[in-house]
Amino acid sequence: MREYHGSGRAGWLRAAVLGANDGIISISSLLIGVAAAGGSQAAVFTAGLAGLVAGAMSMAAGEYVSVSSQADTERADLERERRELADDPDAEHRELAAIYVGRGLDPQLASEVAKQLAAKDALEAHARDELGILERLRARPIQAALASAAAFAAGAALPLTAVALSPAETAPRIVAGLSLVFLAFLGAVSARIGRSGAARGALRMTFWGAIAMALTAAIGRTFGIAA
């Protein structure tokens, strides 16, 4: 039976949770801050919608630039490895065998393993065992940018929908309450998928969300001018 390991999900899970968490906290805090400053419900919603678009684009751009840099590094490493394999295959064989010796194989077996893996796909063997580059984990900038933007927009849409459907006088409290519930749920789910404690995950999400909302509300009340 195939064993389950959560570590394989770490990359995309972290990106999805970060994007959704950022969307909820950023937009709910923005909505509460504008409302605390005396903005009308229309102004609050407009600010939130603008924040959703700007935040999603910012997340996409940041993720694209970051992952593109990683992809460039991976391509450069693979190209250098390809040249080394062509120029001195014997040295590359010894290098790969030495890696397996370091992992516990005896030298003769390590040399045979390196030989057989190289016969199938030498570059793949070196990419995986020397460079730590796995095809399923390769950097994909466009995919990362779209996923990050979508996660942020999905998270931001929750408090934005809440303010659109709530009475103007109670909208800030409803947004705050629902956003904390959303954050707790998101924290619990991500913790459980990562095989960690759900309560701890929910608590750390709601704690930072509550701090952000409290600070923006205080700023809105302090510097805002009633419309």
In words, what does this structure look like?
- The protein has 227 residues and is mainly alpha-helical.
- The chain has a domain at 10-68 and 152-221.
- Helix content is 81%, strand content 0%.
- The protein is built from seven helices and no strands.
- α1 (10-36) packs antiparallel against α6 (171-193) and α2 (41-87) crosses α3 (89-102).
- The longest helix has 47 residues, at 41-87.
- Mean pLDDT is 82; it is low at 1-10.
Quick overview:
By secondary structure, this protein is an all-alpha fold. Helix content is 81%, strand content 0%.
Supply database-style keywords.
227 residues, mainly alpha, 81% helix, elongated, disordered N terminus
